[in-house]
Amino acid sequence: MAYRLVVGLGNPGSAYANTRHNVGFDVLDRWVHAEGIAFRDDKRGPVETARQGDVTFIKPLTFMNDSGSAVKAWLDWLKLPPSEVLVVVDDVALMLGDVRLRKGGSAGGHNGLRSIEGRIGTGAYARLRCGIGPQPPMWALEDFVLGRFGPGEEEARRTLLETAVEALRCCQHEGINVAMNRFNGRSRPESQ
Fold it and tell me: Has this prediction a pTM greater than 0.85?
């Protein structure tokens, strides 16, 4: 039932810490902290890894646009098909605080997902999309996603990370179908 490889997307280094584009890293950091495990550098590739039973969590340190090279290397290393992968990723098309789970799909304009699909040759892997939008009309996409959350967004960011961890836990313990039913379309507290 659980995905064997869970990938959080982001960019390495302090310059990118707490940016919108690093929500995938942030969700996995919260997960491993809550589970009492820790990320470590791994000699087999440019990633940080954490293990929990037969599940491997990775944060590629290849930068977002080359995330696929790390995912492909770890699929090969673990001898897993793409259907055993769940990718946690930011999504500018979703409102800040919303999450969506999908069993597969397109990159939707996200460079990290595009890199993964290019390297593994398919979009048939699960993803947990974490809403960071909306993008302000006059902002360039790159500036927006690489920017930090504003002071007025901190509560929504905290809620997003908590909800994403809950969705990930549900997905890993009860299956993606249950998680999709429970979390897709769930309203943010401030929109109720």
Answer: yes
